[in-house]
Every structure is written in C-alpha cells, then in structure tokens.
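Practice record 12: protein with zinc ion.
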Amino acid sequence: MIDRPTIEKILDAAQIVDVIQEFVPLKKRGVNYLGLCPFHNEKTPSFTVSPSKEIFKCFGCGKAGNAVNFIMEHEHLSYPEALKYLARKYHIEVVEKELSAEELEKQNERESLLILTAYAARQFSENLIQSDEGISVGLSYFRERGFRQNTLKKFEIGYSFEKRDAFTKQALDDGYKQDFLIKTGLSIQHEERVFDRFSGRVMFPIHSLSGQVLGFGGRILKSDVKTAKYVNSPESEIYHKSRIVYGIFQARKAISKEDRCYLVEGYTDVMSLHEAGIENVVSSSGTSLTQEQVRLIKRFTQNITILFDGDPAGIKASIRGIDIVLEEGMNVRIVLLPDGEDPDSYSKKVSNEEFLKYLKDKERDFIHFKTELLLEEASDDPVRKANLIRDIVRSIAVIPETITRTVYIKECSTRLEITEEVLYHEVNKLRQQASFQSRNKYPGPEDLPVPPPVIPKPVEQDVVTYYSEKEVIRLLLKFGSAEFEREIRSEDGQEEVTTVSDYIVREIVSDDLLFDYDTWQKIFEEFRFHTEQGIFPGDKYFVKHEDPAISRSSADLLSEPHMLSRIWINKQTYVETEDMKIKDIVPDAVLKFKSDKIQSRLKEIMTQLKEAAKTGDTERILALQKKDQNLRIALKMISDKLGNRIVL
Ligand SMILES: [Zn+2]
C-alpha cells in the first residue's frame, strides 16, 4: 500500500501532457493537445489532452481519465503499479505502508516478476563492468567491436557468469523467490536442481515501452560450446515476444521526431545504429513481425524502413513477413546493404554521415523492390513469372488505401508487362476472399462504412434517470464552487453566499434522493461531505481521485466542452455561454432530476398496482393510489416551476 501523502506527491508531479507524450505523439491545438488515440485504430486524431483540466478524452472511443488512468489503461497496470511508474518517472520516493503477511502474499505477481527482472538486469550489468570474468569475457567483446560505454549503459547490457547457478544462488540469497525465478525464466528447474538459463552469456535486457525490463536475450561468446548462439526468455506473465520490439524504449522519441522507424535484425544492430547517431531503430529479434509489433511502431510513425543484409536467400525468406506491415497501411521501404555487410559491420566501416547518406540514397519502395527481386529470378520462365505476379498481387491486395493500391497497380503493370485490368481483377478477387477479410481485422475507411464517433454510455442508459443524474453530477464538477446566489441574512445583516454545490446538495438531501449509478452517488456523497465541512474540493480533486471509477467518470464529464443542458437545447434559445446561465441551468437540472426520479417511482407503483389488482388486495391498492396521487401533485408542482421549458 502506498501512503496518501506519497500518492498526492505523485499526482501533483505528473504532468498529463508529459506523461502521455511518452507514448502518443501530441500536437498543440489551441489550449489542448491532439493525437491519434492509442486505444482504438484511427486515422484522424480525436484523442484530446487538456493540460489545464489534467485529463485526456478520446472522442472516438470514449476513453477518458487522468494521468494515472492513462498509464493503467495503456500499460495494463494496476492502480498502485501505475502510481509507482509515475513515481519512478518523477523521481519520487514511494513510501509504502507496512504490509501484512496476507497483503504481501496478495501482492501482484506481475509486479514481483518485474522487480525480479529489474534486479537481474542490475546484477548482470554490474557483472559486466565490475567483475574480472565480466570484463575479460563480456566487456572485452563489446570493446573489440567498438561499442562505447554509454551505449552499453543505455541498453543496460550485462553479463551472466559461467558458473551454472551463480545468478540463481545470488538471487535466492538476496531474498528472491525461486518460484519467480522460474516464472521469469531466469532459472530452470531440473529435478531437484535449479540453475541459470543464461550462464556464460552477454545479456540484452528487453524493455517495455515505459522502460521496464520484461525479459532478456542472451548471446554465448565461446565458439566451441555446442549450444544455441542466442537464448531468449520464455513467454511469461510479463514477457510476450510477439508484443514487443527490441529497442522501442530507447527509440520511441526519435521515431516520433524523425517520423520513421528503421527495422534491423539483431540486438547489436540496434546498438550500432545508435552509435552511428541513428536512434529511431528497433529489432524484431530475428523473427518476422507480428501485427501487435507493427501497431506498436505505428503509434509513433507511418513509415518503416527495413535494413537487409545482401544475402538473397535471407531476403526472400523475410519478404513474406512484410505484408503484415502493408496491411496496417504503413509505408514500407527497403535498404539493401552492400554485399557481405550487416548494419553492425557497415555502420562501423563508414563514417556516420556516409552511413546515413547510404540509407537515404538506397532506400526503395518495398513493392518495387520485391517486384524487381522476383523478376530477376523468374527471368523467362512463364510458370515462375505467374507465381511472381500472384505474389506481388497479394502484397498489393493487403494495402488498406484504395489510392495507394491504384498507384501500385499502375506501376506494376508496366514493370511486369501485364495489363492493369488483369491486375485489378486479381487484386479484387483476393480482397473478396473470406480468408483475407477475416485476417484483415481493421480494414481501411474505404472498405467499411465509417460510423460517426459514438461516445459509449454505461449499459444502464435506458434507465429514465440516466441523463438527469449525469447532468447534476456534471454541474457539480464543473460549477460546484461557483456562486449560485447571494443574500443578506435578516438576522445579522451579513451577506451569505450559496455555491452551486451548496444548492444542489441541499435540494437533493432534503428530498432524500439517491443516484442510481454507484459512481455518481459516490461523487455526490463526497460533495455532500465537503459542503457540510464548508470546503469545496474542486474538480481536480475528483479528476485525481484514488478511486479510478471516480477519476475516469469525472474526466469524462468535464471533457464535454459544449454539452449544454438538454433543456436549453430543446428550447433552442440558447445564446450565452453556460456559466452565464448558472442561475437557470442549475435549478432546472435539479428539477429535471427530481421529476425523473418521480417518474421512475410512478412506474414502479404502476407495476405494484397491477400485482395488487391480481390478488384483489384492496387496502394495498388504495395505499398505492394515494402514493401515486401525491407523486403526481409533486410532479405538477415541478412542471409548473419549470414552466414550459421541458415536457415532462
Ligand atoms: Zn479512442
């Protein structure tokens, strides 16, 4: 448990734009910031961040909240995990309450695994630079290859001792549980023995977007050992190979700034490019890209450039996997490195300027590249050429944008010496195939009618009181501390100011009314408590509330900039801004809330009357009729007060 003062310190320090910008590129638009929503697939930005309100809101999918809610949602973290993440970011020491044995046990397993991997990364990197074995085996390997100290540090490169249980033993001595050592894959259990997975390897930690160590890649340096050159962490609660790309944490800002991401094969390729001053680079760790990995990159840029070594067999094997990038509507380019060179070797052979110039000069469109590569191979063989055309058509067919497809069809028609009509026919045939449709889960806008953005409502929205409850809470949040009326008290001649919050609380409490929606009732209770204490907590208090349901709901309501009272919209006489109308809007909203409550009560009575009629319970019928009558009188009074402003 994190104590309250620490939570407050964290919430005060967390600048929402700063927090979100780390994951979503934002552009300033007036007082707010705008970007592409990370929670749903969109092409036009509807994700808004308000630094003054300290909230975000997506007008496409409806997600809203404060900085902590964002981290929870985005990084799939629990509330305390998200707070700790922000504490790390802003260098705030987290003071935790003493945990009971039971609480300790309950502590999130995921969090424990992450603590362990962070510990392991620290140990390995200490081994590399501080131990004799680490220096002579590991560090010398990197030094010989010209890696600088700060690059090793940036990537938290380490070394795992050769002794088969060195790390496991040390971790156990330092109090880490064997269970977690096995779950992270750092240790392997074989019958009674537990030993290290990575012994004798240099270690490449694999970081999450936010810099947490999720897993490791380990490379053996000795050439005489009969074992795989690279070993990776197995899949675990925290490490999912298909969802992360190596280097994204170190690259994310540069990718967004350069609006381009370079993709290389290995860990050291990524590091080499950093050394050459190119920081917008990631690696898929030698396997073909997955849709999740492509989407991770796509959050920062639409442009991906893949670096290939000049080995034709390798290129052909990798080329198939690239359709998945096209499918996401990204622009794919290829750079072929000179014969016998990989990004690591070539970047070291030439100067940084030459290397960058090479990448820029030699960059080619993927489909052109693929067409020529395959054409060369097919030469005059008609069967091979037919296969080649099918292959190219497949790549074009997955591209979501119609215009892009059209351009490619035109170009390929010339290169392949085949009519555009035939290519169109083939492309359309493929696009219509069910197998393709289901694979392409997020078709482009031309392929599906685009529904207008809908802000999801709670499922209970059909309940009578939904809108009027929502409006009362919104007014409390937005205008709670505003002056509602000012009166001279007759007894002492003192001036008394009633705030909107005073007024609403008084009205609702005096009629003993409750909100149907839990979160709104909770917000109301807090207003009531604070109003009775004579203090107004302010909208920030709710936006930063420790109950994520309250903070989300508050952010959602506060981010509806132009939502007017329904009453005024109906009347279509609305001219002034809302705060000039407080004296009308607030009482109207309260009356509407009351009348909705009465109407829902009348509905209940109607049902009860029917039941009573069935059983012939005359006494009950009379009692219910009396209630019904009283409620209708109350309703009439409200309706008179509201005048003709609303139809009840
Ligand atoms: Zn969204």
